[in-house]
């Protein structure tokens, strides 16, 4: 049921995006909810499908792991509540399903500090009311049918509850997305074929501006040394649209803020930061509307070349965007799918699109996406984010993609990339220059152009040791600090680099990739 629900929501993803005006008009509710469901499906693919406890954990863990945006985080909590009811049951019958929808509704409301009616929460309440209502026959089908009927009734009333919806003349996007999930569950039972995606003719965001807080900031953390309630209190002064939730030993946070650096550094002191995402909502709003107008631009003159880059870390994402790239979120430990890359290529208005995978593990997916695009895409085989930055600096939309490919590959080769992260296991390795490194799980490790060359010490010492061996008179040293590094950390490291290499120009930026203390390039 949940697998079909994922595909069903995928059909209507852009329609849900087109409705999105609350809490901010960033046009990504459908995308975020679909990404959350896709994460559930990935976990279901690896669980024991004959064991309900295993299935329930996959639902709860997958939803939290993949939750994106305000709507995705709330959906993850609806699914968590649902999973908690079915976890100990041998099978799901009508009464269990009704109880699961009620638990979902309660978990959703419980996750939000200030629940607002007229949103996905209202529709979740309608779904639960319908599921628990009187039934002509005690079947799962009947529960779903009545859940949809009552959920739709409340969804139709959401413009009366929220002024933003009334102003835009739309129903709530998150509520609509949730109903599509329930529709998909029913379709799975009935064996219904997926419908055709509806044509989108208008986007409600066009009449709205983004809110006062500029950055949609998210984090996923493990090994938290504080309870969720205290993490929530730590985060709350930074902005609004706040959600801090947990499941299966993980903490997920979402907030709109003007201080993403300080927020992530504050939270990062109390656990192991696994994933972060910071989106400039003004840029995101513009990009979504640009994608919305892709069909309208089809008959206009398009540039010879476009650019798609795989990246994580909001500082790096901002840089790639400033160089003209459409972003595919992902990288180390979070590889995007072939479909993710194909979708990004299709959204770019250009005769041919250059793809920067920026990770050796993404290269194969990028090449497969290129094949599927049948001549409309070409891959520049960048294996690190540093190489990707070098290649992107050589990009020009007005030049032919095939000739650009050679220039961008040459530019990528001129960049040396250093990465400082932590060891995921205990091991012993011999480097190319014959040194033996004894590494314990959790140790600081340093990589030069994706080859492990250093271990031990502090992240700053690791970087300085690698620079000492790898620097050869290059002109520019660019430092990106990871999500747990403060502005003070970056300033102190920049001073050390300038003192050691006085002839180099040193630039330092926050917003480096997840799971890394530092990413540094020399060129």
Average pLDDT across residues?
Answer: 87
Distance between the termini: 52 Å
Biggest sheet: strand arrangement: 13-12-9-16-14-15
User: How many beta-strand runs?
Assistant: 16
What key phrases describe this protein's structure?
4-stranded antiparallel sheet; 523 residues; 18% strand; alpha/beta; 48% helix; 20 helices
What do these coordinates show?
The protein has about 525 residues and is of the alpha/beta class. The chain is about 50% helix and about 20% strand. The chain has 20 helices and 16 strands. The protein has helices spanning about 1-10, 15-20, 30-45, 50-65, 70-85, 95-110, 120-130, 140-160, 165-170, 175-190, 230-235, 260-270, 280-290, 315-320, 340-345, 365-370, 385-395, 400-415, 460-470, 485-500, and strands spanning about 215-220, 240-245, 250-255, 270-280, 305-310, 325-330, 350-355, 375-380, 415-420, 425-430, 435-440, 445-450, 450-455, 475-480, 505-510, 520. The strands form four sheets. A six-stranded mixed sheet has the order 13-12-9-16-14-15, with helices on both faces. Strands 2-3-1-4 form a four-stranded antiparallel sheet, with helices on both faces. Helix 14 links the parallel strand 5 and strand 6 (about 325-330). Helix 5 packs across helix 6 (about 95-110). It is globular. The protein starts with a helix and ends with a strand.
